[in-house]
Design goal:
With about 160 residues, the protein is an all-alpha fold. The protein has one domain. The chain is built from three helices and no strands. The protein starts with 8 loop residues before the first helix and ends with a helix. The relative contact order is 0.07.
Length: about 160
């Protein structure tokens, strides 16, 4: 069939049909694109959750003094919540929970550092107190020895 010339009714029909097909193709592409993006987004969120879960084990191992057990338990709960929200396809809420988890993990790291520094400080203060006590005992023994020496010198003369 020959292509109609410009300006005829048939030509307008072809143009309208071509525009409709192009619009339909764009609509289908727009409808399919978010699904692919969502699948990638879901994988990315799952990877972030898994990464943070492995970080929780590291934090638990670092907490030798058990100063942050409550915070670590809360972090685990939030990661479980993020996993549940990811399963429900609530990606914005998952991101919010993951941001909260990152902040919580940083708080835990800081508290672990503080507890270790406090323990180190306490250890050094105890060592200092022991040294002061030893100095006092030595000073007292020196004074006693000095008094005995003077007493002996006084009896010898």
């Amino acid at each position: 069939m020959a292509k109609p010339t410009r300006g005829t009714t048939a030509a307008r029909g072809w143009r309208t049909a071509a525009r409709s097909i192009a619009a339909l193709a764009l609509l289908v592409a727009a409808w399919l694109a978010p699904r692919a993006a969502r699948a990638g987004e879901e994988d990315d969120l799952q990877r972030q959750i898994d990464t943070q879960r492995s970080g929780v084990a590291d934090l638990d191992r670092l907490d030798e003094l058990r100063a942050t057990t409550e915070e670590i338990t809360m972090l685990k709960t939030w990661l479980d919540e993020a996993w549940s929200l990811r399963s429900k396809h609530e990606y914005d809420q998952v991101r919010e929970v993951l941001d909260r988890c990152l902040a919580q993990a940083e708080l835990i790291r800081q508290k672990i550092n503080v507890s270790k520094l406090r323990a180190q400080t306490q250890k050094r203060e105890n060592a200092l107190a022991d040294l002061k006590a030893k100095i006092d005992r030595t000073r007292k023994a020196f004074q006693d020895t000095t008094i005995k020496k003077k007493a002996l010198e006084g009896t010898v003369q």
